[in-house]
Structures are given as C-alpha cells and as structure tokens.
Amino acid sequence: MLDEYLARIRAHRTNIHRYRRLLKSNLSDVERQFIEKRLTEEQTALELLSAETFPLAFSLRKGRTCRQTSRGAANDARVPGGLIRGAVGPHG
After folding, report:
1. Quick check: is 71 in a domain?
2. Interatomic CA distance for residues 5 and 1, integer angstroms
3. Dist CA 31 CA 64 (whole Å)
4. Which residue ranges does the record annotate as region Disordered (predicted)?
5. What is the count of structural domains for the chain?
6. CA 54 – CA 48 distance, rounded (Å)
7. Digit-coded pLDDT (tens) for 47-70
8. With contact defined as beta carbons under 8 Å apart, do 67 and 92 qualify?
C-alpha cells in the first residue's frame, strides 16, 4: 500500500516539475493559464496525499527552510531538564 502512495507522490512531483519547466517557456496566455491551473491542482493533490501518507510528519511554514525551523521553534520546545527528546539543536 505504501508503495502505491509513494508512486502517486512521485507522479505528482514529476508533473509539478514538468509544469514549472513549461511555465519558463514561451506560451500563449491561454496555455499559461491552463498550465498554472494544472500546477495548482497538482500541488494541492500532492499536499493532500502527503498528509494522508505521512500524517505524523511536521510541516514547515512556507518560506522557511528546515535549518531555520530547527533553530527556531524546536529549540523553544523545552521541558524541565532540557530539550524535548528528538528536538534538533542549533548545530543541526
């Protein structure tokens, strides 16, 4: 079952990359609108499928990298005696 989900995720990612590449080419306004719509649909489908496949994964806020996040919120997650087990420290 997991293999099926991973294959679907790969297909969505491949389509997203293809649409982004197409948007860099010369397109008519109608073609561009169609590709942008399809890109949005693929991104939404990927997000939903990823959330369903990996329900316990932590999501990043848009515009933040893993390193920025690990230095921010994870370091603030303190319990008596130190950091929560598994939290990433400032050195990665």
Report:
1. no
2. 7
3. 31
4. 67-92
5. 1
6. 10
7. 999 888 887 655 556 655 555 444
8. yes
CA dihedral for 88, 60, 53, 18, sign (positive or negative): negative
> Do 32 and 19 contact (CB within 8 A), yes or no?
no
Band (pLDDT 50/70/90 cuts) for residue 1 is confident
| 3-state class percentages of the chain: helix first, strand second, coil last, to nearest 5 | 60, 5, 35
89, 83 Cβ separation under 8 angstroms: yes
Residue 27 phi, psi (nearest 5): -130, 155
Residue 89 in any domain: the answer is no
- Record the pTM: 0.59
Residue 82, phi-psi category: left (phi > 0), alpha (psi -120 to 50), beta (remainder): left
